[in-house]
Write a structure and sequence with these properties.
This protein is mainly α. The chain has helices at residues 3-21, 25-43, 45-54, 59-82, 86-98, 102-111, 122-143, 148-153, 157-174, and strands at 116-117, 120-121. Helix 2 packs antiparallel against helix 4 (59-82) and helix 4 (59-82) packs across helix 5 (86-98). The radius of gyration is 21 Å and the shape is globular. It starts with a helix and ends in a 17-residue tail after the last helix.
Length: 191
Amino acid sequence: KGAFFTNLNILITFLVSGIWHGVGLQYVFWGLLHGCYQIIGKYTCSLRNHFFTCMKCSNQIREISQRFFTYILVTIAWIVFRANSLTDGLFAIYSIIFRFDFSSFITQIYNDANVTFYGLALPEFILLILCILCLLIHDCRKNKGLTYNNLLISQNSIQQCIVAICILLFIAIFGTYGFGYDARTFIYGGF
């Protein structure tokens, strides 16, 4: 009933979540890593509050930095999750941190006739950027208290149907795409 058992329960919950996703040490590590994120986040809350207060950061700067940091942590966990093994995932993270060559990355972008952005063709990369921009716009609107639900509810039924059809078409066209895409390789395709 104390902090120890609360933290143990968090770790067990995320461990089970990792095991549920697949058999392999990378999934166990992924689950435990998310559990550790939760526990560390809980214990560093006052330290983070103090830091942002001392830095005199606005709430927007604070939210943006917290979201960015969360994105980095979750991305690190996804690298391990998608790896063939725990060793491969940890080596990939090590390589990103200690072996990344920024100059060759820039050279590849500017000098390669067949520009690829680490596995994405140019149209896919452009779509990625557009989707990220849409998410950022959505996030800014949500922070201002403007939601698409309220906007959509205020429209008549025909306009609501048109929006729903457009969303479904967008998902159908852009949801599964790319050269060599195989729906069976989707993470939950085997269930």
